[in-house]
């Protein structure tokens, strides 16, 4: 493996800016790495060697641009985020042939900042899953142990960064889909505040929950990425018009965590945590304390209701959002339909996988006449109470800290026949989407028995990503790095 | 508390599937009925939560509705919009005869 690909985004960016290496050389190194590892990992649905090399050469011809914070940096983009001219499959047969003619807003921003897209990353079909096992392009494997899942749904984006195929990537997080794979693959993942990043050009799953965010190998790298991709967009009415803080520059402004209060929601620590996960996380709390932070127990009493609340809302929104896939304007169309209804029904039944069909059906059920009030309206009421709990807990704390996942990455196939058990793996992540708050996950150690990465989740106040980055950055500096994935050859 | 048996029958799942414009094969329907029953049963615990007088929260940041001037903007050409159509005649999408 070329040493070039193991550098942080910041380091490779600085090397590129100093012309110590060309964009073409960096892209070639990533492509070599992709070729060496992706047959085994399947992190990418589509590597983009020609496009990436052509863009690298165009950038090299103009020379480094100091105004572009990602000049020449290879990244990957989850394959439900539109990149003009490149198939956007969502890991689904129904969209195999869909080629958007426009870039997602965040893609335009990253490209304007100088990034080079080297591939589209694999995902659970339509982002519905916690393990990246439901893509029509097959499972993605965890670079730390290829018999285990990478987490989902942005498992390809996490695995690609962890395996050094690129320096950063973009995923989306509806109920934990950035934070869970970041934790299971040992990289940093950020779910920004709802409204921070435009959703224009993302295929919607749960519109009031979805938010795109970055993966990186360091906290600083994700700060650089989020700064580049954030900002108001008049094409998304839920995108918030407020200034983006200079996240990366603000990292240097804090030398310790004195005066910072970290809330520990007791429901996230009391029960259900695997002992090896708990032991790694507890050590990271000692480090936070050593850095000067005050730890304080808080309570989020409605935690046990978060899973049903989340799934009712997410599936209701999904059933509505996925109604657009009807075989008429784009996507797969069934052959020789008898009539319009037959065209709809067969195109959808042939095109959607089992998990997507399950979620559409539950969504349809909870929105149907006679059940709407009992399920959907009730869930939306509980959602407000869950958010109020978070606001109360954050009233006396700067950030909250807890587990990301109850266990380390599990074996491939272990939970695929038990959807409910799979949904429960999101218990620590999905409340944050219901409340719209930002969350950052960083690796804090390896499980003693499994040797697999464990991620600590930090939860912040709305639009206070800066405190999350500062806290995560200082913690990262104080901890022993987990190193490169042990399970990957090549 | 109801049990999953009386939450969803296979016939009921077939009806929901039809509403969702889906038609799973009979063996899948049976499997879905069990799984959906489990999931809905788990959701029933929400009955325990007191939400008297609580306004539903549909968007986490409760945005004001955004208005703009009602001015048409051309953001794409007809050709671009039709570029992914499974079947079109260069001007319109083609679907099976409706009437």
Automatic annotation (TrEMBL), chain A:
<dbReference type="GO" id="GO:0005524">
    <property type="term" value="F:ATP binding"/>
</dbReference>
<comment type="similarity">
    <text>Belongs to the amidase family. GatA subfamily.</text>
</comment>
<comment type="subunit">
    <text>Heterotrimer of A, B and C subunits.</text>
</comment>
<dbReference type="GO" id="GO:0006412">
    <property type="term" value="P:translation"/>
</dbReference>
<comment type="function">
    <text>Allows the formation of correctly charged Gln-tRNA(Gln) through the transamidation of misacylated Glu-tRNA(Gln) in organisms which lack glutaminyl-tRNA synthetase. The reaction takes place in the presence of glutamine and ATP through an activated gamma-phospho-Glu-tRNA(Gln).</text>
</comment>
<feature type="active site" description="Charge relay system">
    <location>
        <position position="78"/>
    </location>
</feature>
<dbReference type="InterPro" id="IPR023631">
    <property type="entry name" value="Amidase_dom"/>
</dbReference>
<keyword id="KW-0648">Protein biosynthesis</keyword>
<keyword id="KW-0436">Ligase</keyword>
<keyword id="KW-0808">Transferase</keyword>
<dbReference type="InterPro" id="IPR020556">
    <property type="entry name" value="Amidase_CS"/>
</dbReference>
<dbReference type="GO" id="GO:0050567">
    <property type="term" value="F:glutaminyl-tRNA synthase (glutamine-hydrolyzing) activity"/>
</dbReference>
<dbReference type="Pfam" id="PF01425">
    <property type="entry name" value="Amidase"/>
</dbReference>
<dbReference type="GO" id="GO:0016740">
    <property type="term" value="F:transferase activity"/>
</dbReference>
<protein>
    <recommendedName>
        <fullName>Glutamyl-tRNA(Gln) amidotransferase subunit A</fullName>
        <ecNumber>6.3.5.7</ecNumber>
    </recommendedName>
</protein>
<dbReference type="InterPro" id="IPR036928">
    <property type="entry name" value="AS_sf"/>
</dbReference>
<dbReference type="InterPro" id="IPR004412">
    <property type="entry name" value="GatA"/>
</dbReference>
<dbReference type="GO" id="GO:0030956">
    <property type="term" value="C:glutamyl-tRNA(Gln) amidotransferase complex"/>
</dbReference>
<dbReference type="InterPro" id="IPR000120">
    <property type="entry name" value="Amidase"/>
</dbReference>
<feature type="active site" description="Charge relay system">
    <location>
        <position position="153"/>
    </location>
</feature>
<feature type="active site" description="Acyl-ester intermediate">
    <location>
        <position position="177"/>
    </location>
</feature>
<feature type="domain" description="Amidase">
    <location>
        <begin position="25"/>
        <end position="468"/>
    </location>
</feature>
Automatic annotation (TrEMBL), chain B:
<dbReference type="GO" id="GO:0050567">
    <property type="term" value="F:glutaminyl-tRNA synthase (glutamine-hydrolyzing) activity"/>
</dbReference>
<protein>
    <recommendedName>
        <fullName>Aspartyl/glutamyl-tRNA(Asn/Gln) amidotransferase subunit C</fullName>
        <ecNumber>6.3.5.-</ecNumber>
    </recommendedName>
</protein>
<comment type="subunit">
    <text>Heterotrimer of A, B and C subunits.</text>
</comment>
<keyword id="KW-0648">Protein biosynthesis</keyword>
<dbReference type="GO" id="GO:0006412">
    <property type="term" value="P:translation"/>
</dbReference>
<keyword id="KW-0547">Nucleotide-binding</keyword>
<dbReference type="GO" id="GO:0005524">
    <property type="term" value="F:ATP binding"/>
</dbReference>
<dbReference type="GO" id="GO:0070681">
    <property type="term" value="P:glutaminyl-tRNAGln biosynthesis via transamidation"/>
</dbReference>
<dbReference type="Pfam" id="PF02686">
    <property type="entry name" value="GatC"/>
</dbReference>
<comment type="function">
    <text>Allows the formation of correctly charged Asn-tRNA(Asn) or Gln-tRNA(Gln) through the transamidation of misacylated Asp-tRNA(Asn) or Glu-tRNA(Gln) in organisms which lack either or both of asparaginyl-tRNA or glutaminyl-tRNA synthetases. The reaction takes place in the presence of glutamine and ATP through an activated phospho-Asp-tRNA(Asn) or phospho-Glu-tRNA(Gln).</text>
</comment>
<dbReference type="InterPro" id="IPR003837">
    <property type="entry name" value="GatC"/>
</dbReference>
<keyword id="KW-0436">Ligase</keyword>
<comment type="similarity">
    <text>Belongs to the GatC family.</text>
</comment>
<dbReference type="GO" id="GO:0006450">
    <property type="term" value="P:regulation of translational fidelity"/>
</dbReference>
<dbReference type="GO" id="GO:0016740">
    <property type="term" value="F:transferase activity"/>
</dbReference>
<keyword id="KW-0067">ATP-binding</keyword>
<keyword id="KW-0808">Transferase</keyword>
<dbReference type="InterPro" id="IPR036113">
    <property type="entry name" value="Asp/Glu-ADT_sf_sub_c"/>
</dbReference>
């Amino acid at each position: 493996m070329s040493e070039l690909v193991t550098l942080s985004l910041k380091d490779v960016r600085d090397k590129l800016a100093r012309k110590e290496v060309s964009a073409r050389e960096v892209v070639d190194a990533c492509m070599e790495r992709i070729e060496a590892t992706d047959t085994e990992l399947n992190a990418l649905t589509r590597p983009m060697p020609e496009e990436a090399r052509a863009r690298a050469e165009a950038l090299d011809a103009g020379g480094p641009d100091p105004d572009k914070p990602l000049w020449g940096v290879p990244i990957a983009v989850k394959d439900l985020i539109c990149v003009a001219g490149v198939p956007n499959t969502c890991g689904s047969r129904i969209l195999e042939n869909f080629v958007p003619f426009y870039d997602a807003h965040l893609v335009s921003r990253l490209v304007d900042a100088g990034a080079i897209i080297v591939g589209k990353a694999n995902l659970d079909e339509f982002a519905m899953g916690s393990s990246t096992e439901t893509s029509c392009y097959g499972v993605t494997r965890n670079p730390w142990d290829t018999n285990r899942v990478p987490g989902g749904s942005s498992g390809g984006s996490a695995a690609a960064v962890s395996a050094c195929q690129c320096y950063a990537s973009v995923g989306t997080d509806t109920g934990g889909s950035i934070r869970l794979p970041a934790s299971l693959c040992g990289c940093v993942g950020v779910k920004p505040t709802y409204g921070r990043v435009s959703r224009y050009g993302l295929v919607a799953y749960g519109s009031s929950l979805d938010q795109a965010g970055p993966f990186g190998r360091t906290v600083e790298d994700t700060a650089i990425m989020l700064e580049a991709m954030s900002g108001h967009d008049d094409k998304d009415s839920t995108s918030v018009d407020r200034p983006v803080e200079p996240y990366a520059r603000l990292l240097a402004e804090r030398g310790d965590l004195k005066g910072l209060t970290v809330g520990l929601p007791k429901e996230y620590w009391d029960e259900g945590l695997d002992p090896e996960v708990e032991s790694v996380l507890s050590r990271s709390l000692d480090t936070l304390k050593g850095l000067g932070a005050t730890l304080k127990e808080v309570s989020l009493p409605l935690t046990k209701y978060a899973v049903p609340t989340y799934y009712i809302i997410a599936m209701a929104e999904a059933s509505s959002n996925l109604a657009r896939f009807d075989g008429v304007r784009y996507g797969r169309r069934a052959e020789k339909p008898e009539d319009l209804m037959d065209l709809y029904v067969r195109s959808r039944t042939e095109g959607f996988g089992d998990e997507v069909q399950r979620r559409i059906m539950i969504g349809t059920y909870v929105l149907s006449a006679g059940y709407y009030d009992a399920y959907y309206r009730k869930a939306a009421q509980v959602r407000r109470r869950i958010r109020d709990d978070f606001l109360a807990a954050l009233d006396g704390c700067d950030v909250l800290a807890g587990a990301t996942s109850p266990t380390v990455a599990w074996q491939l196939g272990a939970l695929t026949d038990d959807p409910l058990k799979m949904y429960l793996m999101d218990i620590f992540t999905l409340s944050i989407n219901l409340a719209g708050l930002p969350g950052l996950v960083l690796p804090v150690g390896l499980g003693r028995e499994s040797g697999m990465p464990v991620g600590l989740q930090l939860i912040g106040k709305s639009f206070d990503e800066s405190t999350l980055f500062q806290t995560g950055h200082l913690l990262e500096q104080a901890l022993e790095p987990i190193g490169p994935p042990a399970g990957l050859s090549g | 508390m109801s049990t999953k048996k009386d939450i969803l029958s296979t016939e009921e799942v077939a009806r929901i599937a039809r509403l969702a414009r889906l038609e799973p094969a009979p063996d899948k329907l049976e499997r879905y009925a069990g799984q959906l029953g489990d999931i809905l049963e788990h959701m029933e615990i929400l009955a325990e939560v007191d939400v008297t007088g609580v306004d539903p929260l549909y968007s986490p940041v409760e945005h004001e509705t955004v208005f703009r001037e009602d001015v048409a903007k051309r953001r794409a050409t007809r050709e671009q919009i039709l570029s992914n159509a499974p079947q079109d005649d260069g001007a319109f999408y083609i679907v099976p005869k409706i009437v």
